[in-house]
């Protein structure tokens, strides 16, 4: 179905958070503690706007809106609204509303709260632009904006070295993946000739049928895997827990880290279903699921436990998306929705515990149920959904995904076993987060624990209850949200039927019972299991996180060596490198592309023309054999005078006069400068240096000669010459066309050239006045290993 054109309101909805970000610091200063309520109105209104698309999208409709951005490049600020983008927009704006409120309570009284709100709202707008982006280039721009704004949020507490390191690590990893994604998008545009996602989705096989499918696949995967923390790029996400908890709850569970999953789902009709897709994605997704859950069990910090299960959940989503099986994709969409709700709630619960009790270490927590009853209730509801127990949306998602993986003939069994183990370990973490801090004997905490204000518990309560409510109305949830999103993934309209409870005893139900039983058994041995995993990780030692530090240290060392080589402080080196690259630039393309110009025939010169050439030739010999620099400079002027004589013979007396003046002044000025500088009189080179210098000089000269020959052999386009000849008199009131061009038609160019000459004169003056100082040796920088998080599990 062709997307319907809508008005620009949706475009303004994407830009609204950026506008709110501008005023956020001022509102925080003026309204103090009430600023969060005012700022939360913006995402709430955006949420209400996108609820208006739910019904038409559920009927299979889609919509586009666009504004010209860079029309000469075909780049538009355009949005594409269908089931997938609507679901993501609702999650971003809906959860974002409660994150703004939560941040108002969590950072209450913080001197930089306004700045934090500003960063958070900019990130919200970037995510909305990403998931709604229709134009590939504008989508990439918003993709990179999410990396930049998350860098600002992760490094918000910039006085702490750990925060700075985590922010830099996230930026390097996701930014590097973003460059790969840009290359993939450029290839897509090149091979298809299309730049709008809606147009590409109308022809889903357009990329699969090209010979560049494989590089496009891996480049897009590079962007998705780095953003969604897939193994081996998973290490940046747990380290990003150095950010304040509102950032963790929003960026690293509900929104940013799912950008990669969104991209894979969006590109599924274009890239999915191939043997490469159904091999690579399930493999890496399954590894990420197991690695994330195992490392989560190792942790005792609430945020790190949730962070590693986020890594695992992203792996599960990638694994399910990689199957390209309809029922597995349905399970992926359901789990996407469920995870956003329960993980956002649990992160806010962890932050509330830390805020009110003074610690996030579960070994130092216990008995908080009576002190924090509302937070405890929210934690239980969210944890039950995370554990996949009825009657929550997480249970329905687990049932459907088991149905999809079990029925996949090719790799159904290993994928199902991986999902069962991963879900069992996630049940362990869910139980640990909900039970350990709240039940058992009361433990003395650094702060007197009590229930937080409404700003802190409103979000967890709403999200956890929503996870329950969506399950109770499972049929409606399927019709309005899951079915339209699944249709976007499959590229065709699909109707689904969701039920809260299984209608019969089947394989998915039995697998759920196995998952629950295994999870409970592992939870009873969680301390022993944590010690065992810790011992294994200690024995392994090295991991991607440590590898990142080694990579950065290697880059620093390499850059120092290159800088030491190229920036030696010697003018001779700089000039040599300049000429080498100039010669390569003008000479190599012709040889590599076999497009060298034809050599012209020797013209029939007159005797005086031969005389001028002989003058130039003997001037060249004089330069080469000159014993002093002063003699070489004077001899060099002979070349310029010979060129001036050529201009005069071919009817350009004004140009010839200018050349005479320039050459005369150049020789005089250079001679005066040489007398002031303390330089050796001779500049002869011997041996290897003479050979290298000669090769470079001949290469540059040959390259420029061939370039000029290639230009002169092109058909002459006289339109510009005709324009100047026609209008020099009538418009500029001058008969000398050359003067009119220089003064009138290219007046600003001439002004720029004069500025360059003035700048060069100032540089010459500085050289004349310089006083030589003894050189100090350049010391190699000491490589200091950046601080690493204290948790041993994060090294893996």
Explained architecture:
With 796 residues, the chain is an all-alpha fold. Among the domains are: 290-532, no CATH class; 564-712 and 719-769, Four Helix Bundle (Hemerythrin (Met), subunit A). The protein is built from 32 helices and 3 strands. α5 runs antiparallel to α20 (454-472), α30 (719-732) crosses α31 and α31 (737-745) crosses α32 (747-769). Mean pLDDT is 87; it is low at 789-796. Residues 134-411 form the NADH:quinone oxidoreductase/Mrp antiporter transmembrane domain.
Task: Outline the biggest β-sheet.
Answer: 3 strands, mixed
Output the radius of gyration. Answer: 34 Å
Strand order of the largest sheet: 1-2-3
Shape: elongated
How many strand units? 3
Question: What would the average pLDDT be, to the nearest integer?
Answer: 87
Q: Which spans of ≥5 residues are poorly predicted at pLDDT below 50?
A: 789-796
* Percentage beta strand: under 5%
The percentage helix is over 70%
Structural class: mainly alpha
